[in-house]
Write a structure and sequence with these properties.
- With 389 residues, the chain is an alpha+beta fold.
- It folds into four domains: 3-75; 79-141; 148-320, 4-Layer Sandwich (Metallo-beta-lactamase, Chain A); 321-388, Orthogonal Bundle (Arc Repressor Mutant, subunit A), CATH 1.10.10.
- It contains twelve helices and 18 strands.
- The protein has helices at 69-77, 79-100, 105-112, 116-122, 132-141, 178-181, 183-190, 195-208, 277-289, 307-331, 338-344, 357-374; strands spanning 3-9, 14-19, 23-27, 41-46, 54-59, 64-68, 148-150, 169-173, 218-220, 225-227, 232-237, 246-251, 255-257, 294-296, 303-304, 336-337, 378-381, 385-388.
- The strands form five sheets. Strands 10-11-12-13-14-15 form a six-stranded mixed sheet.
- β12 (246-251) and β13 (255-257) form a beta hairpin.
- The radius of gyration is 26 Å and the shape is elongated.
- It starts with a strand and ends with a strand.
- The chain binds zinc ion.
- Zinc ion (ZN) binds next to loops.
Length: 389
């Protein structure tokens, strides 16, 4: 790849490199010799002798350095550096807003509940050790609001923060949208047969998850692209967990937000009326084929930075479906009623005490039973009972 142009910025302590397709940043800290406040960059030029695949710079002291485009690309793609880059960009935004803000530095520190020294650390773009959380809080104080929320799907634990962004545009896949518009829509997504349970869940979602209806929420469809300025977010419809469940791919970085294909030891959840086992299985195959470099799981499995680890975790996650089915089949060695199967538990551990566990078990078991009967591995017998064939 060839470099079109290079600029140095001694104030921001960065080189800004343009190629035919990208605008990239390389902090001075990555260059050797390293430009400093006392020995800043005087000149930086694209290196014609290197076929425009590098740039050269000269410091005040006369020392020179060369940086190859590969080094810049690598810095801009490595996940560890992505975090640093994001921190850097947010810091520059915070600096701009802090200098334009009518609030004094002292008032900003006060609202953040931090010291002046800590505020200066937050505003220092060369400090990569500060927390992104604190920086986001600072941006909030400086009136930098969230303006778009793209939902992976609509479940109580994924909309709990919406009330904090009353002015943001909110969007979800069209199939999950009713759950954002009204709490009745969310209850329909669960769709449990027990009406009293649904009423209890209504209260639980309102008080524990601060459900805030967004009748203005807008639909998106499979393949929708959100241009966030330098980053595009692409929605990839992967139903099964809910009808509208999507993964979100940040491009060009290749960061895939997996939604509730969450790679936990619990395994796939398809226990709601709007969940579907067969759809979930198709989505598991499809998510594996998506080109990505970093996988961000929701819930506990964290961020994964290499494909072999992702594929191993995905295989382990997907295997839970077969394990549940095998356990169910083994338990059908004698005729069982649905109530007996639900009490035995194939989804949740025996000690799980959440109100909806029996309902989710019921929906999960029904789907496996239907498949086992269709495949001729189990059969209905007697009065609403099933057994292995
Ligand atoms: Zn969910």
């Amino acid at each position: 790849m060839k470099i079109r142009a290079v600029k140095h910025n001694n104030r921001k302590k960065t080189f800004e490199v343009r190629t035919s397709t990208k605008a990239l940043v390389l902090p001075f800290s990555q260059a050797d010799p390293k430009p400093t406040a006392v020995d800043p960059v005087r000149v930086s030029v694209v290196d014609e002798e290197a076929g425009r695949e590098a740039f050269t710079y000269v410091l005040d002291s006369g020392r020179t350095g060369t940086v190859h485009v590969e080094q810049v690309l690598e810095y801009n793609q490595d996940p560890r550096h992505l975090r640093d880059l994001l921190l850097y960009r947010l810091t520059i935004e915070a600096q701009k807003r802090a200098s334009a803000s009518p609030l004094s530095k002292r008032e900003i520190s006060r609202r953040l509940g931090t010291s002046a020294a800590q505020l200066y650390r937050l505003l220092d773009q060369t400090n990569y050790r500060k927390s992104i959380d604190q920086l986001l809080a600072l941006l909030q104080v400086l009136n930098c609001d969230v303006d778009l929320v793209v939902q992976s799907h609509v479940h109580e634990d994924h909309v709990a923060g919406l009330g904090a962004f009353p002015h943001a545009r909110v969007t979800a896949h069209a199939a999950d949208l009713p759950g954002l518009h009204h709490i009745d829509g969310l209850l329909a997504i669960y769709g449990y047969e027990d009406a009293a349970l649904l009423e209890r869940l209504r209260g639980w979602v309102e008080t524990q998850f601060h459900y805030t209806p967004r009748p203005d929420a807008e639909p998106y469809v499979d393949g929708a692209v959100f241009d966030l300025g330098g980053v595009r977010l692409r929605a990839i419809h992967l139903p099964g967990h809910t009808r509208g469940h999507c993964a979100l791919l940040a491009e060009p970085e290749g960061v895939l937000f997996l939604g509730d294909i969450d790679l936990t030891g619990f395994g796939p959840y398809y226990g709601d009326a709007w969940s579907d086992l067969a759809d979930f299985e198709r989505s598991l195959a499809r998510v594996r084929a998506i080109e990505a470099r970093v996988w961000v799981s929701f819930h506990h499995a964290g961020v994964i930075e290499d494909r072999p680890t992702f594929e191993a975790k995905l295989a382990r996650f997907a295997a839970r479906i077969g394990e549940r089915e095998a356990a169910l089949l083994a338990f059908l060695d004698a005729p069982r009623t649905l109530a007996e199967l639900v009490t035995h538990r194939f989804l949740y551990p025996p000690h799980a005490a959440l109100d909806f566990v029996d309902a989710a078990e019921t929906r999960t078991i029904r789907q496996h039973l239907a498949r086992l009967v269709a495949d001729g591995r189990a059969e209905a017998c007697g009065d609403s009972m099933w057994r292995r064939r």
